[in-house]
Amino acid sequence: MLDKRFVLENAELVQQNCVDRGVKADVSRFVELETQRRTLLQEAEDLNRQANEVSKSIGKAKDDAEREARKEEGRQLREAKDAKQSEVDRVGLEADRILRGLPNMTHPESPRGDEAASHELRKGESKPPKFNFKPLDHLALAEQHDLIDFEGGSRVSGNGFYYLRNEAVLLEFALQRYALDRLMREGFTPTMTPDLARNEIVQGIGFIPRGPETQIYSIENSDLNLVATAEITLGGLHAGQVLDESQLPIKLAGVSHCFRTEAGAAGRAGRGLYRVHQFTKVEMFAFTTPDQSEDMHNLFLELECEIFDGLGVPFRVLDIASGDLGGPAYRKFDLEAWMPGRGQGGEYGEVTSTSNCTDYQSRRLDIRYKKPGEKGTHFVHTLNGTAVACGRAMIAILENCQQADGSILVPEVLRVYVGKDRIGAPDDAE
């Protein structure tokens, strides 16, 4: 969430930011409530001080009558203080509800507008392939080579679940190891995270764990939820802790299953592996000082581009417009891969994203750091980025690397992990 003082001192700027991001919020009401809360709090503290003074004076009373009178005065003052504190809590609760609904501020270079205003920054090294045959989408390719069983997944777990088979299993593990190896060379600590997180951690990261708008699977009769991304479990790792500045930046490469309800996400573009209820992802996460976060965000983007350039997958990078940013993100870059099987002749589809969330999440999770020689503490900045979401990366590989003879070339960087150069021999073509 945003700093209360910042909102109070920059109410018009914060309100305009809400407009830019398409978020309905009454910033002026927050200012009114927070100002009222501070006044009420001062009044409560004054009443408490008066009650303490009266309490100290009871022993100095001249007689029983004066002693009883002072006790009664103290009792009335404490009742008045308690009533005032109840007002403080009531007003504070309403103010906090507004504050928690405010999105992060937006990077000055981020485009303003809705999704259509997102700006293309660059393209990858590989160009979309020019096939001399009609390319198949990943569903047809998976059926042809017995790679994915959606029907079996549906029978066992419901729509949006699936079984990986044969070389698809090898590709899944190859993608994970390929991404991890690259991130470890960059100083990331490989981490396997829990698949469950408490409500307070999910909320602190910025997801809605319960209610009609949630995309999270929750566990009945508990405060636990299946995580939608390792961002949740990595971000919550240092909740409530004070780090030393010398520890920063902390760079983590998290491997986790991801579970999403994907409510209301039906449509042709989301067919197959593109929008599923469970998948595996390698996630980058960093805790930094404020001075380090922008450079770290650029590093995350460079690593994502390097990973997909290494796979030989064509892609473009978008600077996401304000109206399409999630609440915690200060700035977000999406990497969209070319998918020949989408639409009428191919479309770009998102495969990774990276966001700088500044101190928005760390305020909610109370993650701070301490500078040497200083008494106070500062909130860390948090950043997240997808190194590889295995399902979507697999779509891009299968569709871009298919050959006229029906086989699928394995990207060279993955061959050492997969153990073969191609999926399907040329004589398998129909």
Please give a handful of descriptors for the protein shown.
alpha+beta, eight-stranded mixed sheet, BirA Bifunctional Protein, domain 2, 430 residues, 2 domains, 13 helices, ATP-binding, Helix Hairpins, 41% helix, elongated, three-stranded mixed sheet
Describe this structure in words.
There is one protein chain. The mean pLDDT is 93. The longest helix is centred in the first third of the chain and has 38 residues, at 64-101. The strands form five sheets. The protein has an eight-stranded mixed β-sheet. A three-stranded mixed β-sheet has the order 7-13-14, with no helix packed on it. Strands 2-3 form a two-stranded antiparallel sheet. It has helices at 4-9, 11-20, 27-57, 64-101, 138-144, 150-157, 167-185, 199-205, 230-235, 293-311, 360-365, 390-400, 412-418; strands spanning 119-123, 148-149, 163-164, 189-192, 196-198, 224-226, 242-244, 250-259, 278-288, 315-319, 331-339, 347-356, 368-370, 378-379, 381-389, 408-409, 422-423. The termini are far apart. The chain is built from 13 helices and 17 strands.
Task: Please outline what is shown here.
GO terms for molecular function: ATP binding; serine-tRNA ligase activity. With 430 residues, the chain is an alpha+beta fold.
Topology (SSEs and partners):
Blueprint lengths: L3 H6 L1 H10 L6 H31 L6 H38 L17 E5 L14 H7 L3 E2 H8 L5 E2 L2 H19 L3 E4 L3 E3 H7 L18 E3 L3 H6 L6 E3 L5 E10 L18 E11 L4 H19 L3 E5 L11 E9 L7 E10 L3 H6 L2 E3 L7 E2 L1 E9 H11 L7 E2 L2 H7 L3 E2 L7
Parallel strand pairs: 4-8, 7-13
Antiparallel strand pairs: 1-10, 2-3, 5-6, 8-9, 9-15, 10-11, 11-12, 12-15, 13-14, 16-17
Helix pairs in contact: 3-4, 7-12, 7-13
Pfam family, one: Seryl_tRNA_N
Keywords: Aminoacyl-tRNA synthetase, ATP-binding, Cytoplasm, Ligase, Nucleotide-binding, Protein biosynthesis
GO cellular component, one term: cytoplasm
